[in-house]
User: What shape does this take?
Amino acid sequence: MSKYEAPKYQVIKKEDHFEVRKYEGFNTTSVNEKKLSGYSGFGLLFSYISGDNKKNEKMSMTVPVINEFNDEHMSMEFVVPSKYQDDDIPIPNHPNLVTKHYPEHYAATISFSGLSNSHHVEKEKKKLMAWIDSNHIIPNGPYRLARFNPPFSIPMLRHTEIIVKIEQPKE
Assistant: This one.
């Protein structure tokens, strides 16, 4: 169990390192990032939770740090602590930071350890997509990389996930 708050979910199906989950809605603060190993986005987000927002309010660190990948860009996102509702989330001072809302949704995931470089992420993504296909699950959105540990953690002990939003599974 992590000492940091994370989005809440219910496990619907589990098989080895794969899960189907039903996530409760949650919010993130997001910035576009140029590359997976980039730190400029992390610095902006860390400043935001350290009080660089319209309320000058410090916020708790949460997990995971999320990268969402789509055709146009890659984001880096911090999960907003759940004590904040949609209308009272501190507004970022920096114009490149935006708040995103993830409504309740289903997702398929794969968990892995090690480095989360582009090669390893792509390899794990292919495993997840093959599992999704073999289970007749329909993906419904871009994939997200979720990193739960600081970058100085020993790679073998890191917990990382790839998460893909899916259509609601048939009961």
